[in-house]
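Appendix C: a fully annotated inverse folding record. The material below is reproduced so that readers can follow the format used throughout the book. The structure is listed first as tokens, followed by the designed sequence.
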């Protein structure tokens, strides 16, 4: 049984003094974007951006991409100022469907604020019906979007990163939410681009709470639905005069708008994987975790490798050890024209982070320049989500507190609040670099602990690891003898007599007391 409590009309749109939209709120969308926010963030839209069911979605002439996003919209019913999460839902009068559409071509000058890309007159249809919020479970709503009858989005508010009550309480800490204000609560995965002539439909539905009364009769299990909010994409006869920013798109923008390279027509499939092959096997990794970098350093020195130490860095998580295969990122000194061409968008820094695999350790060559950050919390989180073993930079680390609180360890020269562009241009991925005084090649084996960081050439890794295990076994046996009261002279290092005793005690390869 479907129930449409109240049609949404022009009065509801005219009563919206504020339209507030949430950037990311569904895990499915956060996974697409490669980041999961710790707290909600928002942008404001003018009330004139609202439109009704049936109104055209107008795309200005010269604009290529009109993005469409199905969302649950909340309409505030009573003033909310400094309300608690427990009381917040009581200030919501209505729930409806919304299309948080936008012009991707105009996102570039107002990133974050989305003022021009999502503030266009009539770009945000809502409706067609208002559902009584207090008759609904806010954690049990469903939002769906269709384009020309094909379902492209579906998700439940049970999955939200930030429940509706948290959004309302958070916003009300600093501003008064007034009756008629609209909150757009985020879109799930599947947001995409609609072309000219496409019919975009969005519906929100959910079960009424038990005890809902209809015409004086209590009805349980009733499904309340907004009905389908339908709007067709049209092209405006007007273009954009050159008084300000004009449409501009990169391939990265197109991929972001469409949701994938294939959908955007950028590439028929993923590019060839040119990342270096890791030589780490579970057995080799276990050996390296079992020995210290001090021991590995000795074994490298015995093989003529004196300069395999990344020096002068401190860990974000003291006491944590990391073993992994080197991936590399090189920065060059900041230069304004080069940063303009290489610093924005999906630059080398982001490409390096986004290409990490489980067990990789990203080595950043920042030339030892400490005057800006080379890693921040969002990129560290992305590395963690992808399963990287660590990130190591001989530059600064921004957001040092949040990065230190993550599971993934990082090593850096120092905390620094400045952004990358102050001192660096991200330049190249997976080539030989210098970090902390050491040369590092993609595929080298990296071991980092409280003693330091060593770089093991891939062709020596098995040999060095085996010898390091044997050395630590021997040193453990020596330590037991010292604990028994023996002097170190002749024992450390062992003379021939002690060597014979050690050989006898460890005939089967296991140290004995």
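Designed amino acids, in order:
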């Amino acid at each position: 049984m479907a129930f449409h409590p109240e049609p949404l009309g022009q009065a509801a749109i005219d009563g919206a003094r504020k339209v507030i939209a949430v950037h990311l709120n569904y895990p499915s969308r956060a996974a697409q974007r490669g980041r999961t926010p710790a707290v909600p963030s928002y942008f404001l839209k003018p009330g004139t951006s609202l439109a009704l069911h049936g109104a055209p979605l107008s795309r200005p002439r010269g604009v290529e991409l009109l993005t469409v996003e199905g969302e649950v919209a909340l309409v505030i019913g009573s003033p909310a100022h400094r309300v608690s999460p427990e009381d917040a839902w009581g200030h919501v009068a209505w729930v409806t469907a919304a299309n948080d559409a936008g012009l991707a071509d105009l996102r570039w000058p107002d990133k974050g604020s989305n003022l021009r890309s999502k503030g266009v007159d009539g770009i945000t249809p809502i409706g067609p019906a208002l559902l009584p919020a207090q008759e609904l479970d806010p954690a049990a709503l469903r939002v769906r979007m269709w384009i020309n009858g094909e379902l492209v989005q579906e998700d439940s508010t049970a999955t939200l990163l930030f429940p509706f009550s948290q959004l309302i309480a958070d916003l009300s800490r600093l501003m008064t939410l007034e009756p008629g204000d609209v909150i757009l609560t985020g879109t799930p995965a599947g947001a995409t681009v609609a072309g000219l002539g496409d019919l975009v439909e969005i519906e929100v539905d959910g079960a009424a709470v038990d005890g809902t009364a209809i015409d004086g009769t209590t009805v349980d299990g009733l499904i309340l639905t907004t009905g389908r909010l339908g709007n067709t994409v049209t092209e405006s006869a007007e273009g954009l005069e050159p008084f300000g920013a004009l449409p501009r798109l990169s391939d990265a923008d197109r991929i972001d708008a469409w949701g994938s390279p294939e959908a955007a027509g950028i590439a028929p499939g993923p590019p060839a994987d040119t990342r270096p092959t890791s030589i780490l096997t579970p057995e080799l990794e276990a050996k390296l975790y079992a020995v210290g970098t001090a021991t590995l350093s000795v074994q490298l020195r015995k093989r003529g490798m004196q300069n395999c130490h990344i020096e002068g860095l401190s860990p974000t998580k003291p006491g944590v050890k990391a073993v992994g295969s080197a991936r590399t990122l090189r920065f060059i000194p900041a230069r304004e024209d080069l940063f303009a061409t290489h610093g924005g968008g999906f630059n080398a820094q982001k490409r390096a982070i986004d290409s990490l695999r489980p067990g990789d350790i990203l080595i950043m060559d920042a030339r030892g320049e400490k005057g800006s950050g080379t890693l921040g919390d969002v990129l560290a989180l992305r590395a963690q989500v992808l399963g990287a073993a660590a990130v190591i930079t001989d530059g600064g680390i921004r957001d040092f507190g949040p990065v230190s609180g993550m599971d993934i360890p990082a090593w850096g020269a120092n905390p620094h609040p400045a952004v990358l562009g102050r001192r660096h241009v991200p330049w190249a991925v997976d080539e030989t670099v210098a970090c902390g005084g050491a040369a590092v090649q993609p595929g080298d084996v990296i071991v980092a602990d409280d003693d330091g960081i060593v770089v093991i050439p891939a062709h020596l890794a098995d040999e060095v690891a085996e010898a390091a295990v044997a050395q630590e076994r021997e040193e453990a046996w020596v330590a037991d003898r010292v604990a028994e009261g023996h002097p170190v002279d002749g024992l450390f290092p062992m003379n021939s007599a002690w060597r014979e005793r050690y050989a006898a005690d460890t005939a089967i390869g296991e140290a004995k007391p």
